[in-house]
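ok new one. same drill as before - structure tokens go in, u give me an amino acid for every spot. 142 of them this time. try not to just spam alanines like last time pls lmao
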């Protein structure tokens, strides 16, 4: 069963709630397993560019089937490949903090990404809170 709109909104709410506790203004993008945008939530005051960045990071982890940290390692190990990737695919690829796969059981049902944190670790912390929120509702993060 694919990720529902209600689950996508739960992901966003979980990240935004945590962002409020750490004084961060973030945008959260949720995509389906194919990297297509399902929901986007930008907190009041979050940087305008954070919407594009969050969506691109979320689509990247969904399409590569790797969390943000694993995708960053892959990019560091293969810089030549990633430098030419924009010529091979229509979707921009961006490996960055705060991006994670959303799983239900062993199946990837989508991905999320957070952008806009200004202190180290804020995007990651908000993404972890988002996964915990959706996990409480029935889907598990990975």
């Amino acid at each position: 069963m694919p990720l529902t709109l209600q689950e996508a909104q739960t992901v966003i709410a979980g990240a935004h709630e945590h962002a409020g506790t750490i004084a961060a203004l973030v945008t959260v993008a949720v995509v389906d397993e194919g990297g297509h945008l399902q929901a986007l939530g930008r907190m009041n005051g979050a940087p305008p560019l954070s919407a594009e960045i969050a969506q691109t990071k979320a689509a990247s982890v969904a399409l590569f089937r790797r969390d943000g940290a694993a995708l960053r390692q892959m990019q560091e190990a293969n810089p030549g490949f990633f430098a030419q990737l924009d010529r091979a695919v229509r979707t921009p690829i961006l490996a960055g903090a705060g991006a994670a796969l959303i799983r239900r059981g062993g199946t990837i049902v989508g991905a999320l990404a957070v952008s806009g944190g200004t202190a180290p670790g804020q995007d990651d912390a908000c993404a972890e809170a988002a996964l915990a929120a959706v996990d409480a509702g029935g889907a598990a993060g990975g």
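The beta strands are 27-32, 37-42, 99-104, 107-115, 140-141. and btw The first strand starts at residue 27 and ends at 32.
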